[in-house]
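Re: beginner question about structure tokens

> Can someone show what the tokenized structure looks like for a real chain? I only ever see the sequence side.

Sure, here's an example I had lying around. Input first:
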Amino acid sequence: MSAAEKAQAAQSVRNGWLLSAPALVILTLFAVGPLMIVVVYSFLAAGQYGNVEWSFSLDGWRGILWTKDIFDETYGLADANISIFWRSIKLSVLTTILTFAVGFPTAWFIATRPQKSRALWLFLITIPFWTNLLIRTYAINEVIRNEGLMNTVLIKIGLISEPIRLIYTDTAVFIGMAYVYLPLMVLPLFAAIDRFDMRLLEAGYDLYASRMQVLRRVILPIVKPGIIAGSILVFVPSLGAYVTPRVLGGGKQMMIGNFIDLQFGQGRNWPLGAALSLTLLVIVTAALLIYVKYANRDTTHGH
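And the corresponding structure tokens:
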């Protein structure tokens, strides 16, 4: 490479950095900056009336799993915190499983419709996104509450004699999150199934495979990237959900998002809230890294 070509290449690199500079500045100010503030706050002492005291402390991180006795100042396992983490992970996993169980047949149905009608079905799937999350959550609340639509109908047709009590339980939160995040599972699955070569089904049946064998050995391995993508898109927001547990859980069935809000509000323990936020970020990042690992492995095997 001649000197002129090297100078031109260097100039091209400089121009690229200059063009991307505004985006980098915005990213630093509004993404990295707030995150660094949270990191700093997690290593400070809690203020008496909220905020923080500017002295180094690990109490925020210690408070995730341990709690201090107010009398002898000894530490014990924070059972309530562990319960909240377990509930969050459990409900997120169950929500992911239910949305897959409902979303896979739905996506298959849409992908196998005539080309002209697919757009209509996809349009219907995306309609819930037009409505605010809070409104959708209150709509579910009106359906499953004691005097709601579901119980009213079941009582009138004689299937039950008294209302089924779902509201303000883990089940209510589970149902609400599954309803809210179902489209996030259907769309990636549809994209994967839409590229599926249906002639492979005929080949499987010609080789005397049963429907279950075709599903397990032909369909699922090929649409696996869509399954992983949909699972991540559902699991990640479910884990940090705030509105749905707040409305349908009634403040009794807290998840990690509600617990973080409590620390920055009534709890007045900002370092613990910051540490919890970073812990949630680590869990989400780990889930995304697992997705990238499996996605890359599938791509490598495909080639």
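Each token stands for a local structural state, so reading them left to right follows the chain. The radius of gyration is 25 Å.
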